[in-house]
Amino acid sequence: MNNLCDRKLRVAVVGAAGYIGGELLRLLISHPGVEVAAATSRGLRGRPIDGVHPNLRGLTKLAFCAEDQLDHYDALFLATPHRETMRRMPHFVALADTVIDLSGDFRLSDPQVYEDYYGVPHESPDLIGTFVPGLAELHRERLRTASRISVPGCMATAGILALVPLAEAGLIQGALTVDAKTGSSGAGAKAGPENLHAERSGALRVFAPTRHRHEAEIAQATGLPVSMTATGVEAVRGVQLLCKAALMPGADEKAIRAAYRARYGDEPFIRVVAHRRGLHRFPDAKILSGSNFCDVGFALERGASHVTVISALDNLVKGGAGNAVQCLNVRYGMPEALGLEFSGLHPN
Amino acid sequence: MNNLCDRKLRVAVVGAAGYIGGELLRLLISHPGVEVAAATSRGLRGRPIDGVHPNLRGLTKLAFCAEDQLDHYDALFLATPHRETMRRMPHFVALADTVIDLSGDFRLSDPQVYEDYYGVPHESPDLIGTFVPGLAELHRERLRTASRISVPGCMATAGILALVPLAEAGLIQGALTVDAKTGSSGAGAKAGPENLHAERSGALRVFAPTRHRHEAEIAQATGLPVSMTATGVEAVRGVQLLCKAALMPGADEKAIRAAYRARYGDEPFIRVVAHRRGLHRFPDAKILSGSNFCDVGFALERGASHVTVISALDNLVKGGAGNAVQCLNVRYGMPEALGLEFSGLHPN
Amino acid sequence: MNNLCDRKLRVAVVGAAGYIGGELLRLLISHPGVEVAAATSRGLRGRPIDGVHPNLRGLTKLAFCAEDQLDHYDALFLATPHRETMRRMPHFVALADTVIDLSGDFRLSDPQVYEDYYGVPHESPDLIGTFVPGLAELHRERLRTASRISVPGCMATAGILALVPLAEAGLIQGALTVDAKTGSSGAGAKAGPENLHAERSGALRVFAPTRHRHEAEIAQATGLPVSMTATGVEAVRGVQLLCKAALMPGADEKAIRAAYRARYGDEPFIRVVAHRRGLHRFPDAKILSGSNFCDVGFALERGASHVTVISALDNLVKGGAGNAVQCLNVRYGMPEALGLEFSGLHPN
Amino acid sequence: MNNLCDRKLRVAVVGAAGYIGGELLRLLISHPGVEVAAATSRGLRGRPIDGVHPNLRGLTKLAFCAEDQLDHYDALFLATPHRETMRRMPHFVALADTVIDLSGDFRLSDPQVYEDYYGVPHESPDLIGTFVPGLAELHRERLRTASRISVPGCMATAGILALVPLAEAGLIQGALTVDAKTGSSGAGAKAGPENLHAERSGALRVFAPTRHRHEAEIAQATGLPVSMTATGVEAVRGVQLLCKAALMPGADEKAIRAAYRARYGDEPFIRVVAHRRGLHRFPDAKILSGSNFCDVGFALERGASHVTVISALDNLVKGGAGNAVQCLNVRYGMPEALGLEFSGLHPN
């Protein structure tokens, strides 16, 4: 059913004062098929949301409410911390027909892997299997009827979208090395010395040399071992991955292009960017701020034994809130790009 | 007439390879009431526009054409250099029912002032009077029937929108001082030592200590003498003005708020931002990238003899292309915000 | 006496974990005439200083101590908060022959002005008069024998050095307008939402539209009323001021150049930068990071009634720690530029 | 001989108007053992050098001269383009006792490898063998008597210093993957669309996905195959490398620390930065601007099969001009750190 023909979806955002919460509000408030019925914040109950999300000034009169004021919704978006999310999920699922979780708690199918990467045992292992991964490009059919959706991490999304087509097509093998670059908004809106402007500005900070949690998501989706390092770079928004993978015998540029075309030829939000020359040969997060695109590119030398893959996205949009809204559109039979049409800016 | 009821407007952009041209294309291509029929570039004839405007990848198949391939359009947008524009205006006006000029050549009503600020005599003085200033907030009625529209400069727009309500209401007097800060995109897409990243990055460059051309536009609109200095700051997009003006006897905060409310209470793209506390007390260009808002704020001490006025906008949108599209919407009876709904991003 | 002939000065820094404290350590540790005998921090007692000042790795084995471990020193540098500093000054002056205070508490000679700008009554008004202003360019002779020195604020230093020569020479009159731009390090090393990278990066934040405390220092030094607004810009280091002042009858470019030459012709750290053309016509804080220079420039139109004055410096060096070390050099008869020779970087 | 006992070295810089040339001038002008006798520029003959190097204002009266005005020098620094340098080297070597070449032409010992990476045959293959690599940490003894020195590339220096100790000690094997991040100054002072601020600012631009010339230098020095990708990040100065290498059986953290200690324990400009916690756990180019340090760090998981190595430096200093001055100091028996004492800034 296309809900645009009858009524708007009633949705709520839990944890709406943070950056992912704010981006959900930005997208949902201007979404023609949605009514934002509630946005919760513990600290800011009763305060107008545009106080912390100044870009929404003049666009909404919505104020934050407390979680105990929530009733029942078509869809509930969770921008809540990991651990807390898995603990409270039994409560959340009772509040909406569809729960779209942006925390990390239901992304990893194996509770043991969760414990290895999160350092705590999973508290709702029985629920993990009930979540569909929130990536329309790979799980569109299941999402049409999903009542529980787990949106992947920002760096994981860039890695999964870049590497899965090559892994599926049997073009790459062995261990993948991933150099992930990320802007500061990925660390959230909580102030701390590590995000103090004077410390973070211009930094090239290796904050996760090994074992970043998103590494486990990429390994899970590709079925290949992954060695990922995450570095904070000078940017507020943006994630960009540089991946290197050994090629299977016979794999060449033609086969790689074909694999991406087969997977993404009709995708509205994936663009393959791999040119021989020009200023914009490869994906660059710089031009993706605010957009729901994930740009994917690659390079390999004639006769090379490995391929270099590059992918970029806005961590708060395609790497989070935009991806979640895309899932909502799929789930409720709305046009998949509805509310996600912004192209991004150049120059920016 | 509301053209949405019948057909899309056929429009063309002259000088579409530059930054203002690219921003016009970004807005017009996604505008539901418009068909972009032509985009000209001398150097790039026949090349796809997304080669220089990579944010438009996947959104258009449009290629640049040469100017001699232009026919006739409902509206013609001119993103052409000053001097050349005034020289060729007789030719341009024959190509469209409505010409929307983003150059500086028809902004100043007095040819002598033009010569003082541009250093050359005006070559089409007789045409100056036929242009309506492209600012819907101040000239909406005239724009509904205008066939020739001259969009003000980016810094001028920020200054005029901030100061005219106070000047009109007789709240300020004497010489205005204006400190204008601007990002690098205002200098256009031509490479030169002054815009080399290593030189421009992090610069606080006073590039026009006095006599900037936009100073003349603010003086013309307010009827007050203006002393403006323009400084390039670390940003790609964004213009922000800090203005100081002497208050007329009896003028106070209440009167200033009232003047802005009277002028802008119903305006879709002007927000008065002047809070006592909080992180976002005053306008900040940082959150306006891509949006058509001009945020205006002010501060004055009790009993102070002068007022401090702050205004901010995206120089390529409300300071240029967005303003031009807003004029098009007014001119053709379309909803004024059509195609200009993007809220801007936070954080960004 | 030139202490280089006999022994090194024993100095201590109170509040050495902050940014001004760290800059003092950077300069003093490499200063050939100084031995850093102690650096205090309440939170980090016993921890190596290069843990929070990583640029000093490999250059020192110094660790933070507690204040109660201080004994007696030739010179004591105070990088302590205002209010606390005035309250504890009787204690501090007993610890050293020379106290060099970088807080705001002893900069304003009139306790009433202090109360107006700091919002609290001064707690040691009797001591104010015993401090010599820490600006060698204006108070060199008094500094040679000063036992108590109060270093001016970062923005105040830029304003005082730019405007005093013109005020002294009777070239300017009436109210001065000052637009002050500052990097984020001026706010110190304490994390808070206002300095979160995602909020502060790229901001043009008017954080003090009126009544900034440094305004009072500029007014005191020039004897003229000042209307200053302070804006945070995208930079970590750097302060740049744009000032406008009405000219006295007969004042012209020649007279202004002469006034600066008379005042600063022999100064090692003041450069007059005012060229007709070129990329580097006026002062720019961009190239001053790490240096002790204050660059001063100006522009005026022939026949203009006012002058535009620009000044720039590194807020942590000439606007703080470097200025303090320069005072130390003067006080103890060392070469004035000793330990302050770094030229600054270009490009940077 | 220690020339400080007798006279200053007469040196000249060819190609002194560029960024490497300017950095050489900055370091050499303040170097107590050196007299800068000439600085050449074709375009700027007769113009003061501080016109293009504004950080040197007030520190020198030197003007650019033409190359035909050169006579004979103790040392000649070449900041000249590749190809031209090898062609003119027979001329240059006649002008000085010691030639220190910062171009790429004499870094690769195998002319065939040069041709593979530079795309042209080497024009002075017979001279290649007469150059000593300009890296004191690896070639100090040979440099003491070298008359021809070839300074490695900026990214190559970071890679060689990080990886050679591990390769020498037999701790790593197989193909190395190198992700190199670089600021915009590495591209030099020539303006072009790729370095336009609006395009380059905030970019994450993969400009050399494969086959960057510095890749060949790292492979030559380590004797291992290297797959390097170079990405331009938001910075003016700074190079940072993230390298991954397979470990030889038995190689562990202890062995790696020991290898670095053995190689660098007494080195003045190499710091091993690899901490378990804290804000500054690993090397970060952010704090190295202006300094001659190369910080090297690493991380590996217990039982991991590969090591992650991080190195950072200022591309214009340790990655170029500073390294060249360090070689000069070694060559002429001066203290190795003379003129290179600047610590770098934090915050910055």
Automatic annotation (TrEMBL), chains A, B, C, D:
Subcellular location: Cytoplasm
This protein's UniProt keywords: Amino-acid biosynthesis, Arginine biosynthesis, Cytoplasm, NADP, Oxidoreductase
Pathway where it operates: Amino-acid biosynthesis; L-arginine biosynthesis; N(2)-acetyl-L-ornithine from L-glutamate: step 3/4
Main localisation: cytoplasm
Gene Ontology biological process terms, A to Z: L-arginine biosynthetic process
Function summary: Catalyzes the NADPH-dependent reduction of N-acetyl-5-glutamyl phosphate to yield N-acetyl-L-glutamate 5-semialdehyde.
Protein name: N-acetyl-gamma-glutamyl-phosphate reductase
Cited SUPFAM superfamilies: Glyceraldehyde-3-phosphate dehydrogenase-like, C-terminal domain, NAD(P)-binding Rossmann-fold domains
SMART domains per UniProt: Semialdhyde_dh
Top-level class of the enzyme under EC nomenclature: oxidoreductase
Encoding gene per record: argC
